[in-house]
Amino acid sequence: MSSKTLLRLLALLFSFTLIAAACGSDDDAADDGETTEEASTDESTDEGEAMEEVASGAPDECVEGSLNISGSSTVEPISTRVAELYEDNCSGASITVDGPGTGDGFALFCAGETDISDASRQIKDSEAEECAANGIEYTEMLVAFDGIAVMTNPNNSAVDCLSFVDLYALLGGESEGFDTWAAASDLGAGLGSDVAPYPDAELFISAPGTESGTYDSFIEIVLEDAAEASQGEEVAAGFIRTDFSGNADDNVIIEGIAGNDTSLGWVGFAFAEENADIVKTLSITEEPGGDCVAPTIETIADGSYPVSRGLYIYANNEKLQSNPLLAPYLDYYLGGAYIESVTKAFGEAGYVALPADLKAATDAAYAAGLGGEAAMAEEETAAGTECAPGDINASGSSTVEPITTRAAELYEDVCDGVSITVDGPGTGDGFALFCAGETDISDASRQIKDSEAEECAANGIEYTEMLVAFDGIAVMTNPNNSAVDCLSFVDLYALLGGESEGFDTWAAASDLGAGLGSDVAPYPDAELFISAPGTESGTYDSFIEIVLEDAAEASQGEEVAAGFIRTDFSGNADDNVIIEGIAGNDTSLGWVGFAFAEENADIVKTLSITEEPGGDCVAPTIETIADGSYPVSRGLYIYVNNEKMSSNPALAPFVSYYLGEAYNESVTKAFGESGYVPLPADLKAATDAAFASAG
Predict the structure, then answer these.
(1) Helix, strand or coil for residue 678?
(2) Rounded distance, CA 99 to CA 78, Å?
(3) ∠ CA(42), CA(48), CA(50), 5° rounding?
(4) According to the model, what pLDDT value does residue 688 have?
């Protein structure tokens, strides 16, 4: 799976629960994992005030025993405050919390030495692999938001605002050896800085070390894109300079800033705020010449401060069962102690509490880690299906249509007086109907576009977005085409991208493919017959975004004058028509949702795919889509009209059934014995939380 796709899927836990609260506002434009996460905090201040009523209550259960918590020094004050409150109320509990850094914390956690790992970033793949190798299963919980404050000494009056470009010029890989601010001036000016030349003064850096999540977050948010823009994708000089002595202890970093008049560094905002008398926080703008925004609780909460991130705790699932103190402590952490501990981690200063929807998702993830998901499923089954008569109209993606159709059939079988109409003209056409108020549910094989969200808002349509499954996009040819078995993204761009316009044979794309590094070209000298989705289909958009976009920009430059995709083929929103086209031509090429291709495996041939030429060729299967090794994968969604959730008595019970009793049956057996990949427990819990907050 491409890094862009992986990041997008990882971000889903936080992005798809937000729409109910945000739709109809200007914040709907947030698209990617980072900006969506920031935008999600719009209501956090009000939510924090609303939740004050339950702050600092006594633990529901007091248990004797010991806990060992380690990791991020940024998260340490929150966990410490919870521990203090728990121990104040419960004698016999001994809770140890320390903060050697996120990386060091994960090393201990994945060795089974700690119960909880505090983290100021998500776990890395390598760390997750280490946990898996040691049999450590865990639950990840987002607990707060924080800004990373860029600081200097209060005596440094020459600098008040820096852009990401300035920070890269001073702290990025190409600044190695710069011992004065002025030494970075030419680099900064060359990258477009409107602040350079910088002051002719010593550059003393006091910042986190490599073991700190704040170090990783700063690189990812601030330096990474600037490094790639300056050095190219190889980033030979590195993202960050290595000639400073970093520290995982935020107090030591603060002392370094306070002790040198022309210092520069960064630390979690709450630490800087707590030490505002001895450090000076700088305003930051993402682009040179942009609005300079100072870090405050308010600007972190509303997403306007550009250097913000999530804070996490990771709980060892086995220890949730074996250590009797761990679950009561976490109950208290996420319950009675939550607001007190997050917002007052440093006395009167602290972090940004989660808005209600994300807090609900965290609570649901925790319940799943406890085994609560199975318990909830048993309760739903015992309670029976809620039935309400009425008509429901669902439209949109032909890929999602079989899931919704199966759920509808099952619901109608057990509920008299319900009529559910489901059709699949395509994701785009579905959103057009939905945003006009003509449908109750919109099936989608991609997330809603900004323009579609604006159309909904203009018509007063508020909605809830829910991720329901994962799917792979299968690239297909005819079974008689023995010349091709595996293609890379480069090959697919050469054959299907904007520069392939007019190519009527596979061989016509050979020079383009070879020039882009293909190890398959020259392609066979045979007719190129394309059978694929049309522009109204979410599968069309997803294929461009996942497969063609990066290759088009690499080949054509950022302007992409020839377009991402060729326009000289007749696309169709009906997947059955696409399958017929592939089956009817021996040298066909096209793509469709995996489940459709799998259902028609007797008449189409799915190709293995590799992201890079020469990489591992991976065939699409339920297993490779589920584990992320198949590189052309995506999320599938339903969108529900919030007003109709209240006014149509049949709608909420059906969606509840869709996500409850019918879920596994509908997703995994959408085509009889074959189907899609159901959500893992944490994402399913977040979808359930989004539905619970709808309307």
Answers:
(1) coil
(2) 11
(3) 110
(4) 84
